[in-house]
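This part of the workshop introduces the protein records we will be handling. A record pairs a protein's sequence with a compact description of its fold. Comparing a sequence with its tokens is the quickest way to learn the format. The record below serves as our worked example for the rest of this section:
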Amino acid sequence: MNKIHIVAGHSAGGCLKYSLKDDINKAIIILKDYLSIGPLTDLENNNGIEQRIHYFNEIHKKIFQDNYEKSWKEEIGINELLELKNNKSELFYYFTKSTNEQIYLRAICYYLNNCEINLININEILKDNSIISTAQINPKLLKNLSKKSSKISKETRDKLANEFKKIITNDSTFRIFKCGEIISTSPSLIDKIILEKTDSYYISAAKITAKVLSNINFELSDLFVDYRIRVLIEKKQIISKEKNKVLRDLLIKKA
């Protein structure tokens, strides 16, 4: 039976491609969209995709300002996943406790209910709960993990598929993985941390982003933190020294 290796995100995909470069029979699917944020309703139809495009459109406009471009639009959607429906190959999905990877795990169980799915839970296999993304793994180590995969049981598949069904019927646009569950919450969770890490004197906004990411115990895109900084500037909870600068050149302080 043919094998298809599945991973979420370009960085993890690059690691997996390198680790399997000598396997002539490999097939690798990279799930490109970032499901931790944005609306997830109606993902199989154009209406749902347009909702996500609009959401990310607003984020990118705020972050990149005059340098804004739309090349990211091709990343939106789950077509790579939907194309695997009724595929007869053996599927291997690599994941950690990353929120995005955990949501995709549930999406795989929901959409690919007729496929043979093998799970590669990297945190469990390596007995290391500090890993928050497959992209962190050394490609040489990643190469042999598929040999330690486990076939998903019907009970687990049904449970995770039901969890995904709840996620896509929820209007939330921000999710984290905590205590084994996907929790829909408010971006104010990140806003609070940003304000805690922002000083009363001017400091690089990029340094604040780095501080926030190093002080949370779940995986999150740096672009989303950048976006929330812009939102807080608009709300006048943070003051920026100059307007219309990209975030890496922006100096900010607490209002």
User: Anything to note?
Assistant: The CA atoms of residues 116 and 161 lie 15 Å apart. The chain has a mean pLDDT of 89.
